[in-house]
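Incident log, support desk, overnight shift.

02:14 A customer reports that sequence design results differ from what the structure should imply. Their input is reproduced verbatim below. On-call engineer (initials T.W.) acknowledged and began investigating.
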């Protein structure tokens, strides 16, 4: 039986000047623009027919603070589809509290890179299906990587970054996702720092490189500008395609996106 492909909206949440949770949208994790209230947006996407919903606290890790669990709980009350929450998760206690607040899955980036055994411990304690390893990948055109792809006629590898792409780790994305899979990750959330917010399409060489090297489900993220871009991500091997700007600013609705993909022959949930 053919597995259906998922369409997933995502909100990037930060604290505004008054300390309230707010959704922001930018390009390459910069020039962030206020977009709306996270609870209201979650409710809207749930009613619109999204397959899942992703809530990312985009500065929790960089600022060393806890994830905004009160807001997560309020969002969870409005969505009746799988909810993934990421940002500021550093240990199994954080995983437990995030799940208790209403998340179905947790997305971990910096915490898992700093302490890879967190993947093992999280999977053992809560089940692999709860553990999503998020990768913020950036193209590198040097000789420091381990796995190379041809991109625009050049040899390129993808580096895992942290702090919104501002800090490199020297860790090769392909090697890291292989390790995360071995350690028990139930899903891989692959973001492209280069494509983020551009609406010029996903980083397909990145998506394909990951999908070709793991059997764990992969969510393609960053750069979606149309349903056609989602189709290309599915063709590259992704099980799900995530988007933000095209939904937030009304370029496409969830319904329009699903209809377009279904017409193109992709197995989409109605």
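02:41 Re-run completed on a clean worker. Output:
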């Amino acid at each position: 039986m053919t597995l259906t492909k998922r369409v997933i909206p995502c909100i990037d949440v930060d604290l505004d000047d008054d300390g309230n949770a707010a959704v922001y949208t930018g390009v390459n994790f910069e020039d962030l623009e206020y977009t709306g209230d996270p609870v209201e947006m979650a409710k809207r996407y749930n009613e619109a027919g999204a397959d899942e919903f992703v809530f990312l606290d985009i500065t929790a890790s960089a600022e060393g603070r806890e994830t905004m669990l009160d807001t997560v709980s309020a969002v969870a009350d409005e969505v009746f589809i799988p909810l993934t929450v990421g940002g500021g998760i550093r240990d199994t206690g954080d995983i437990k509290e995030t799940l208790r607040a209403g998340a179905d899955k947790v997305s971990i980036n910096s915490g898992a890179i700093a302490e890879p055994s967190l993947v093992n411990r999280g999977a053992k304690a809560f089940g692999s299906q709860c553990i999503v390893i998020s990768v913020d990948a950036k193209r590198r055109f040097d000789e420091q990587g381990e796995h190379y792809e041809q991109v625009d006629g050049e040899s390129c590898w993808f580096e895992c970054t942290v702090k919104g792409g501002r800090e490199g780790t020297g860790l090769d994305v392909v090697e890291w996702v292989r390790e995360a899979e071995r350690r028990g990750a139930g899903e891989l959330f692959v973001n492209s720092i280069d494509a983020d917010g551009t609406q010029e399409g996903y980083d397909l060489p990145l998506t394909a490189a990951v999908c070709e090297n793991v059997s764990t489900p992969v969510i393609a993220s960053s750069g979606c500008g149309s349903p056609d871009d989602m189709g290309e991500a599915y063709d590259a091997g992704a099980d799900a395609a995530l988007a933000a700007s095209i939904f937030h600013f009304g370029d496409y609705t969830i319904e329009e996106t699903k209809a377009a993909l279904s017409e193109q022959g992709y197995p989409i949930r109605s």
